[in-house]
Amino acid sequence: MTSDKEIAVDFESLEKRITNLEIKFSYLEDFLNQIQEVCTEQTKTISLLKKESRLMAEKLSDLLENAEGEIPNRKPPHY
């Protein structure tokens, strides 16, 4: 049979473990929120970069189409 003193020690030990777990959980929760913020910002940045890339590709395509006949037939500068 366990004494009241042993039960009290076990209870204190469990209480400390639970407190430590709550602290760790709190840190993990904060870390998760930080990761979510970073992911949200990166998603916005990626969307913006995709849009800019598409626009640049369209402009390059337009420039190439318009410059087809305008390329001069001259010797390169190294001749």
Explain briefly what this protein structure is.
80% of the residues lie in helices and 0% in strands.
Please provide a written account of the structure.
The protein is mostly helical and 79 residues long. Helices cover 80% and strands 0% of the residues. The chain has one helix and no strands. The chain has one helix at 4-66. The longest helix has 63 residues, at 4-66. The mean pLDDT is 88.
Specify Rg, calculated over alpha carbons.
33 Å
What structural class results from the helix and strand content? mainly alpha
Relative helix content: over 70%
Low-pLDDT sequence parts: none
Strand content: under 5%
One letter per element, helices H and strands E, the order comes to H
Biggest sheet record: none
| Cα separation of the termini | 103 Å
Mean pLDDT: 88
Number of strands: 0
Architecture blueprint of SSEs:
Layout: H1 4-66
Give structural attributes.
mainly alpha, 79 residues, 1 helix
